[in-house]
Amino acid sequence: MGQFEVYNSFPGEFTFISNRFLDGYMPSANGEFVKIYLYLLRHACQEKTLLELSSIADVFNCTEADVLRALRYWKKTGILDVSFDGKGILTRVIFYPVTAKEETLFQNSLQEAAAGLEPPKETVSSSLTPDKIRALKGNDEVRQLLFIAEQYLGKTLTPTDMETLLFLYDEVGLSAELMEYLIEYCVSKGSTSMAYIKKVGLAWAEQKIVTVNQAKEETNLYNRNYFTILRAFGIKNRNPLEKEIQYMNLWMNQYGFTLDIISEACSRTVLSTGKASFSYADSILESWFKKGVHHLSDIDTLDQSFQQKKAARAADSKPKPAQPKNKFNNFHQRNYNMAELEKQLLGK
Fold first, then answer.
1. How far apart are CA 36 and CA 60, in angstroms?
2. 239 HSE (CA, 13 A, CB side)
3. Torsion, CA 293, CA 298, CA 299, CA 301, rounded to 10
4. Which of 125, 160, 242, 257 has CB 3.0 to 4.6 Å from 261, enough for a Cys bridge?
5. What is the side-by-side order of every strand in the sheet holding 49-52?
6. CB of 293 within 8 A of CB of 299?
7. Chunked mean pLDDT (size 10), the chain, 348 residues
8. Whole-Å CA distances, 32 to 46, 168, 237
């Protein structure tokens, strides 16, 4: 992959790390993600800086996909942005100061994680013209939809709010019925953010969800998966915590593991630590992800290879028994001067 630009908006030649980042973002983030964030921040300046994914991957002994995964995570929090060209090649990374506004965006991202959603691959913007907007507002179905949205959101829609809903309805193609459920669902998750509603709607469109039943099945599926994983840890009778949801979405969405593989990691975690440690399970799953595990049989193969290497190391470290001496070697060995013996025999 080619080079990409890195910018920040901080003054001077120092690497500024916001206390908001240290207090609010770093504790809940994957350690590798934090290291990549700090590394990129170190190389960013007000002048253009060019980096390559391959060089970053070499520094951290990881893959380029791991670096991209970290960048997408931080973009999701709102404290940086990444851009790609038409071929999907990274072209730019921009850092933003971590402000109170960005903390709000981070909370929205947690709610997205709770919904089990991946951010859209590209930012999709509206191209509705003023004439088109006026025409849509004259549609009875649209007027009813906007009225219902105001009831759910508990506020009068701004022009920007209306444009977002009309974009989802007219350009993305979500039906009025599906949009009504979309708004209801987002509000039930505690978010009245129009940006969040838009992202959820775009995610549903990308997943080819066109009916309310399909949307309900999708949202219920993630909830069922969460509780399946909790049971694998031995956790019952409570809802998952936000940090636990982040881990589970990472395992299902970014690692792409099936529930049987995740459950196996949970069982091994409890056996090894005696508790439900999500961070410990993540270390197991991250290792399996890097080793290309796709099925339970792949884990069996890794286990067999590990046992073989363990046995080989044990054999190499075992002290070798001393070789027993034979009867000949047990005699005290004498040294003879053969020249003197020959003289004596010849009587010289």
1. 8
2. 5
3. -140
4. 257
5. 49-52, 3-7, 90-95, 80-84
6. yes
7. 62 71 83 89 69 84 84 85 77 74 47 46 59 88 92 88 91 92 82 84 87 82 80 85 82 84 94 92 92 89 87 74 58 60 63
8. 25, 36, 32
Across 278-307, b (16+ Cβ under 10 Å) vs e yields bebbbebbbebbeeebeeeeebeeeeeeee
Q: Per this entry, what is the length of the chain?
A: 348
Backbone φ, ψ for residue 205 (5° rounding)? -65, -40
Q: Locate tokens 């309805």: which residue?
A: 169
Token pair 């031995």: residue: 234
From the CB of residue 44, how many other CB atoms can be counted at a distance below 10 Å? 22
* Prediction pTM value: 0.39
- E-strand ranges in the chain read 3-7, 49-52, 80-84, 90-95
Q: How far apart, in Å, are the Cα atoms of 82 and each of 75, 117, 121, 123, 205?
A: 7, 19, 11, 11, 22
Tokens, residue 85? 């060209």
Which of 81, 94, 105, 95 lies closest to 24, judged by CA? 105
**β-pair type (3-7, 49-52):** antiparallel
- Give every CB contact of residue 117 below 8 A, 6+ residues apart in sequence: 199, 200, 203
